[in-house]
Amino acid sequence: MKNTITIENIHKSFGKLHVLNGLSLNIENKEAHVILGQSGCGKSVLLKCLLGIFEIDSGEITVSGISVKDKSQSKEYMQKFSILFQGNALFDSMTVIENVEFGIKQSLKHKHLSDKEIRSIAEEKILAVGLQDRVFDIYPAEMSGGMQKRAALARAIAVEPEILLFDEPTSGLDPITGGLICNLLKDTVKNLGITSLTITHDLRVAEFLSDRVSVINKGQVAWIGHTKDMKKCGNEFVEEFYRASNVISARK
Q: In the chain, what are the domains?
């Protein structure tokens, strides 16, 4: 199957701190891939390298054949992504529908649309994530954490991305709301038929959202496979991560 994302032997350091040490990873077209690892293992740095926020020291990242290093195609490269941020990143001074419209207005695909057409798309996406029309003109601070996450997802999908990025999607949510959001994310990716990449340290999220999972340790991919195989995969770090994650879950 064709790769949507190809990451080849990338390195990233901050002074004497080596975060990514020859990390390589292929994510297939329309795959739901999860990057799993401990806090501080390099997951967020990898995400920022993928988005071009951090410049990689060496190696290569390509998305649908376009290199992250190719400044002449940077707009086309970035238009392939949309991200659901860990903290949602909704603008406090904008209403929910204004937040969603803002994303659409930044999209090259939608630059020809009228304000009325943009409003129509925004309304459609807000309703598609399970919110009601009464939230259109309220502000993020007036909503619960779960509702804010849904609004942020509406903004993310409104731009019709090729790849959806989820950064710790259940962070700060209670277990029931987190479960509902995981269901929503899984259904959204399936219905849109696109590639998704999730960054998390939560094994339960990885189990639910992934076709495959990559476990990162010491700035490299320690293991790639299915979460059901982690328990007896033959990699000491991965097996220990699996056991520790289940112990923590059992205590909650």
A: 5-80+162-251 (3.40.50.300), 94-160 (no CATH)
